[in-house]
Amino acid sequence: MKKRNEDNEAKEIVRQLSCPEGEAGTEMGKRMDSTNAKMIRASIDLIPEENSNNLL
Questions:
Q1: This protein's superkingdom (predicted)?
Q2: Cα–Cα dist 15/12, whole Å
Q3: CB count, 10 Å around CB of 35?
């Protein structure tokens, strides 16, 4: 029974990642934003600060 619940949870996560909807989709988006923000900030911090660099 535990395996089936884990499989169902995994399927729901995959579904929300591919087509987020409802409250679960909103929560997934918030989690992704939180997780990705750290990686994005670290990547931006690695870009050399030069006059010729423009970051959009």
A1: Bacteria
A2: 5
A3: 10
Three-class SS state of 47: coil
Which residue's structure tokens are 């029974």?
1
Q: Give the whole-angstrom CA distance, residue 51 versus residue 42.
A: 20
CB proximity list for 55: less than 8 A, separation 6 or greater? 44, 47
Mean pLDDT by 10 residues, the chain (56 residues): 85 88 91 91 85 67
pLDDT of residue 56: 67
pTM: 0.57
Distance CA 36, CA 17 (A): 14
